[in-house]
Amino acid sequence: MVQSRVQRARGHPPQNSNLEKEPVEHRRHQRAPVDLPVEFATKNSDARISGRATDLSLGGMFIRTAHPPPFGSEVLVYATLTAKKAAFELAAVVRWTRDDGMGLQFLPLGARETHAIMELSQQL
């Protein structure tokens, strides 16, 4: 069957397409599975909400939480990323949410934060 131009224009893949087989990964940084307790607060708020980070990269993290802020919210994540128990504050933006949590993109990281994330990622 020939697919019409209208169907293609509306984003329907050709029927013999391989596009449905596997999702395409667009992340620039490889994710590492983690299980870290974290707290986060939205910008201009002192109220901290608990969650668990389940993956981490230089680009961001996923946090499991029952109360994710809306898409586009700026948050501060409070986490311990090293064996030395050093606490970090990571500025991020909510890039997507679902019922069990949120995906965050980090805002520019400092050298200390970058080193801690790289070190943690390589240990896993």
- Do you know the CATH architecture? Beta Barrel
Number of strands: 6
Q: Give a quick account of the main beta sheet: strands, pairing sense, barrel closure.
A: 6 strands, antiparallel, barrel
H-E string: HEEEEEEH
Parts with pLDDT < 50 across at least 5 consecutive residues? 1-9, 17-25
- Report strand order across the widest sheet: 1-2-3-6-5-4
What is the count of DSSP helices, taking H or I runs of 4+ residues? Answer: 2
Provide the structure class: mainly beta
Strand content: 35-45%
Characterize the quaternary organization of these chains.
single chain
Do you know the CATH topology?
Thrombin, subunit H
Helical percentage: 10-25%
CATH superfamily: predicted glycosyltransferase like domains
From the spread of the alpha carbons, the general shape counts as globular
Description:
There is one protein chain. The chain has 124 residues and is mainly beta. The protein has a single domain, classed as Thrombin, subunit H (Beta Barrel), CATH 2.40.10. The protein is built from two helices and six strands, in the order αββββββα. The protein has a six-stranded antiparallel beta barrel with strand order 1-2-3-6-5-4. β5 and β6 form a beta hairpin. The N terminus is likely disordered.
